[in-house]
């Protein structure tokens, strides 16, 4: 029987308060880590758990931490990536609004493991309630000795500063986030050097997603075997799935990694509205290629979705029913990427601008013969040639829509109208 | 605290003053409502950083406004999850009842209407942000009720009967 842990407090009245968190055993994992484990042992625990980053890329968290040089001669930093901006995704907001101490405890343990005394929590500026709750939680944790100097009587000192973003999807890309933190336009940096070696202020820096950090106290408290025993061996652990779109029960669900997508959509979220059928599902935020209905029997984990031609991404599951025009969906997705392109590289900046113009024309019934070939050529020009994953995400998403729903694109061009209007 | 004191307190969190530009712009925008040139220059002077650094941030990030916006900025999400739940119907309704187009501000300066990219609240789509607050599971009746509440808030704050200044057709 699966026991949710990440969402344990989210529906509890006053779940955001320290007293509630402590009553459920909160901050005991921090005490255990400081008393019973060296920093290297904490890294080993996380490595043994096979925790993979929940921000989208799925990189092994313990391995990322182990890349931080032991003797850098510079301060080390922990950055929490809370710039949740992937359309379809709202899991991190739930944690920050309703159980912020879970995140703060995870940050404190993670900072202890990598030897950081300062963390910046980069949160999207739109999240007003989450920001207020985090400010309150940090103050509570400081007053109780979970943050500050000589935490719980140890030699470990640690402070968390909140840094509000100001509306830019690219800040979810870790190096762009670092530039933004350093007071620049958010544009991705060339890697290497990787942030673990040369990140914030050219110092060793670890950047982890909110959900990733929230997993850490549970791994310390319950052990890596417990974590690894949930879901597939290569992608284990509890997972937050965001369900939205044309589904009866949208919401946030915590279930094992690897749960079948069909079960998630039809059983948990109640399936499509009455009288409608599922046409397609975007499984991991709009960067993830959509999956047509016939492909829904796939496990929701990094490797299974990659094998199926999509990706887990942020696990932002968007359900599309048979009343919806896929050309309109594809157009809106590419409009988003075009709007959010930081402008650093030509394939992304110019390619997406061009793709939006073609898509709008097709959707409006003014498409021309050759437009689909043009879109495919643009995808080819963007994918693999853009500076960061933003351009790639747009290209693979558009390619999937063209591949699976070519008939709808063709109908728009032939009939010179949208068949759904 | 004055704006300068707030900005200096924020800047103390960073080893480099340039990092404090975004927090400073947030403080300045709350103080002034938007960020005209003289305010940007004041921020640069307080932090002791190049003015162009402040300008480039103020124009890169969408939450910063270099032009005035209304007392209440209605930011309706029209990204995919909200679009699938008919946010476009709400946009048409808002344009009709406010008598403005997307991007416009009502003549009384009360409302600015915008569409925005994903607000990260897709479980309660369609959703709209007004100031720091989210309003979700919206339909036309709820939007109308929200507008009424905002007008009442404005009336309480100013003592003026702003309803009389509402645009025709409402």
TrEMBL record, chain A:
Its EC number is 7.1.1.-. It comes from the Bacteria. Residues 327-372 form the NADH-ubiquinone oxidoreductase 51kDa subunit iron-sulphur binding domain. It catalyses: a quinone + NADH + 5 H(+)(in) = a quinol + NAD(+) + 4 H(+)(out). The keyword Translocase applies. One of its GO terms (molecular function) is NADH dehydrogenase (ubiquinone) activity. Keywords: 4Fe-4S, Flavoprotein, FMN, Iron, Iron-sulfur, Metal-binding, NAD, Oxidoreductase, Quinone, Translocase. It holds the Pfam family Complex1_51K. Its cofactor is [4Fe-4S] cluster; FMN. InterPro entries: NADH-UbQ_OxRdtase_51kDa_CS, NADH-UbQ_OxRdtase_suF, Nuo51_FMN-bd, Nuo51_FMN-bd_sf, Nuop51_4Fe4S-bd, Nuop51_4Fe4S-bd_sf, Soluble_ligand-bd. Belongs to the complex I 51 kDa subunit family. NCBIfam families: nuoF_fam (TIGR01959), PRK13596.1 (NF010120). NDH-1 shuttles electrons from NADH, via FMN and iron-sulfur (Fe-S) centers, to quinones in the respiratory chain. The immediate electron acceptor for the enzyme in this species is believed to be ubiquinone. Couples the redox reaction to proton translocation (for every two electrons transferred, four hydrogen ions are translocated across the cytoplasmic membrane), and thus conserves the redox energy in a proton gradient. This is NADH-quinone oxidoreductase subunit F. It comes from Phreatobacter stygius. The lineage of its organism: Bacteria, Pseudomonadati, Pseudomonadota, Alphaproteobacteria, Hyphomicrobiales.
TrEMBL record, chain B:
The keyword Iron applies. Its EC number is 1.6.5.11. It comes from the Bacteria. The keyword Metal-binding applies. It catalyses: a quinone + NADH + 5 H(+)(in) = a quinol + NAD(+) + 4 H(+)(out). It is an enzyme of class 1 (oxidoreductase). Keywords: 2Fe-2S, Iron, Iron-sulfur, Metal-binding, Oxidoreductase. InterPro entries: NuoE-like, NuoE_dom, NuoE_N, Thioredoxin-like_sf. Binds 1 [2Fe-2S] cluster. Gene3D superfamilies: Glutaredoxin, NADH-quinone oxidoreductase subunit E. [2Fe-2S] cluster binds at residues 77, 82, 118, 122. GO terms for molecular function: 2 iron, 2 sulfur cluster binding; metal ion binding; NADH dehydrogenase activity. Its cofactor is [2Fe-2S] cluster. PROSITE patterns: COMPLEX1_24K. Pfam families: 2Fe-2S_thioredx. Belongs to the complex I 24 kDa subunit family. This is NADH-quinone oxidoreductase subunit NuoE.
């Amino acid at each position: 029987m699966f026991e949710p842990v990440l969402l344990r407090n989210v529906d509890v009245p006053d779940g955001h308060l320290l007293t509630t968190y402590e009553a459920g055993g909160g901050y005991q994992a921090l005490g255990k880590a400081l008393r019973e484990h060296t920093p290297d042992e904490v890294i080993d625990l996380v490595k043994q758990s096979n925790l993979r980053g929940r921000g989208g890329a799925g990189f092994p968290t313990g391995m990322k931490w182990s890349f931080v040089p032991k003797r850098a001669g510079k301060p080390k930093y922990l950055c929490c990536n809370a710039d949740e901006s992937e359309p379809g995704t709202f899991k991190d907001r739930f944690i920050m609004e309703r159980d912020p101490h879970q995140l703060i405890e995870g940050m404190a343990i993670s900072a202890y493991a990598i030897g950081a005394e300062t963390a910046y929590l980069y949160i999207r500026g739109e999240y007003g309630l989450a920001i207020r709750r985090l400010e309150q939680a940090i103050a509570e944790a400081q007053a109780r000795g979970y943050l500050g100097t000589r935490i719980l009587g140890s030699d470990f000192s640690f402070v968390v500063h909140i840094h509000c973003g100001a509306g830019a999807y690219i800040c979810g890309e870790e190096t762009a986030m670092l530039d933004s933190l350093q007071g620049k336009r958010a544009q991705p940096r060339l890697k290497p050097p990787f942030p673990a070696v040369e990140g914030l202020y050219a110092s060793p820096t670890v950047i982890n997603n909110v959900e990733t950090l929230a997993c850490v106290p549970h791994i310390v408290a319950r052990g890596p075997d417990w974590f690894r025993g949930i879901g597939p061996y290569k992608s284990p652990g509890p997972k937050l799935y965001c369900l939205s779109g044309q589904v009866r029960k949208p919401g946030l669900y915590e279930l094992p990694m690897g749960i079948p997508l069909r079960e998630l959509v039809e059983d948990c979220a109640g399936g499509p509205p009455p009288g409608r059928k599922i046409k397609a599902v975007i499984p991991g935020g709009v960067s993830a290629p959509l999956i047509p209905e016939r492909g829904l029997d796939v496990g929701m984990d990094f490797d299974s979705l990659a094998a199926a031609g999509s990706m887990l991404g942020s696990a932002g599951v968007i359900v599309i029913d048979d009343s919806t025009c896929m050309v309109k969906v594809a157009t809106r997705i590419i409009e988003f990427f075009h709007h959010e392109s930081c402008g650093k590289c030509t394939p992304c900046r110019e390619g997406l601008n061009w793709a939006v113009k073609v898509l709008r024309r097709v959707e409006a019934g003014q498409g021309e013969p050759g437009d689909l070939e043009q879109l495919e050529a643009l995808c080819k020009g963007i994918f693999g040639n853009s500076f960061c994953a933003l351009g790639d995400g747009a290209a693979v998403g558009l390619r999937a829509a063209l591949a699976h729903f070519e008939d709808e694109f063709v109908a728009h061009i032939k009939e010179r109208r949208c068949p759904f209007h | 605290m004055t704006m300068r004191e707030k900005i200096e307190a924020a800047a103390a969190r960073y080893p480099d003053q340039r990092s404090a530009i975004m927090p400073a712009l947030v403080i300045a925008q709350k103080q002034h409502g938007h960020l005209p040139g003289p305010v940007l220059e004041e921020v640069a002077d307080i932090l002791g950083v190049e003015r162009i650094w402040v300008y480039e941030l103020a124009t890169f990030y969408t939450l910063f406004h270099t032009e005035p916006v209304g007392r209440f900025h209605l930011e309706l999400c029209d990204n995919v999850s909200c679009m699938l739940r008919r946010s476009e119907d709400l946009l048409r309704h808002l344009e009709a009842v406010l008598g403005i187009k997307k991007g416009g501000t009502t003549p009384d300066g009360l409302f600015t209407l915008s569409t925005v990219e994903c607000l990260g609240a897709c479980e309660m789509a369609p959703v709209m942000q007004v100031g720091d607050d989210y309003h979700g599971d919206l339909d036309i009746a709820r939007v109308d009720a929200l507008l009424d509440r905002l007008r009442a808030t404005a009336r309480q704050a100013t003592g003026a009967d702003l309803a009389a200044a509402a645009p025709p057709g409402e």
